[in-house]
């Protein structure tokens, strides 16, 4: 205060000179005779910084201190009610574990199916006579020849090609007999279809040209006829045609499980001349070079065979279409089951909100005391939000750990299932945990921050 005669000038913000005051109030004989703003005073913000000594660059320190204090209070509250905190996490744990596990099982199933499809031959195109599947006139179309397969195999976009004919016969070895599927194929068939050799060898081009009576059998045939004998060099009777076994191939897989029939492969020339007595083949399978797009290869095959036949009396079946269909189907199923599992996350989030609302009611007096000693609404809101986010994050970590544990148990005890965890699903799980904490923790935090300190302290 500065006295000038009978006039008192009140200077706000503890300034030492009147020129720094925001307002000048004149009092005479106890009465206010003037109250005016000081036109020469600096801005309010500048006076605030000058009076408190806190620069604008230090404001982040205050925010950091407030956050640290709220974080510490949240940890103390969670530690004081450990059972309630765990029960709140339980819904999040189950939801996150369900989503991550379902996605991993979906990825594993898709990978397993694609591997089974690859066992049939990757990037393959099948050529059949007729206009399409179910065409009743296809049996009368006899223009598909082995020479077509030879012409296709010489194309730059073709990796390998093989004609195919088949017949179901009675196979005999000594006093044993069983129905077997005999497939007449070319020497490139085993590369086209990706057949794995277990013992012996595949037959070669010389066997095909010379109508060789040689055969490659699968594991089922070996188990049926040669359980305790080395089949290589043994002679089996295929119908009325004897054939010497030169190799044993791994059991063929047909996309959804292994085949249970007996499969025998012999040169297609042997089947056509000695078994069926025909000059045409039933189909041609082409393995496309990996660097060639399937659509372009399919157009080129159609153009070449049309030129050779003079008409399009055949149709193509692209294995890539089957692969894409199965991939799309498995993705759809994974998304569907994942959406169902995500409901568990929603239920868990509602559980977090309900428990936090109960917590607000139980801690009313604590909130009142904090607000009475100077805590702001933002401090209370920040503390409850931090509690909700921490509960969801810890639940997410435990849920991911539970999913990994379940995956390892499935991989150990159920070898038929593949479990493939992806980084994207784990990151998404953490993101979901955070969003759930913020979304379902906001309402309880807002309710806590809007409590009246007087009423809060008066509640029992």
Overview of this protein structure:
- This protein is α+β, with helices and mostly antiparallel strands.
- It has 3 domains: 2-52, no CATH class; 62-114 and 326-458, no CATH class; 142-312, no CATH class.
- 52% of the residues lie in helices and 20% in strands.
- It contains 14 helices and 14 strands.
- A hairpin with a 2-residue loop joins strand 1 (2-4) and strand 2.
- The longest helix has 44 residues, at 319-362.
- It is elongated and about 135 Å long.
- Mean pLDDT is 78; it is low at 1-18, 51-56 and 254-258.
Characteristic terms for this protein:
single chain; alpha+beta; 3 domains; two-stranded antiparallel sheet; 14 strands; disordered N terminus
Element string (H = helix, E = strand): EEEEHHHEHEEHEHEHEEEHEHEHHHHH
Q: Compute the number of structural domains.
A: 3
Subunit arrangement of the protein: single chain
- What value does the average pLDDT take? 78
The helix content, as a percent range, equals 40-55%
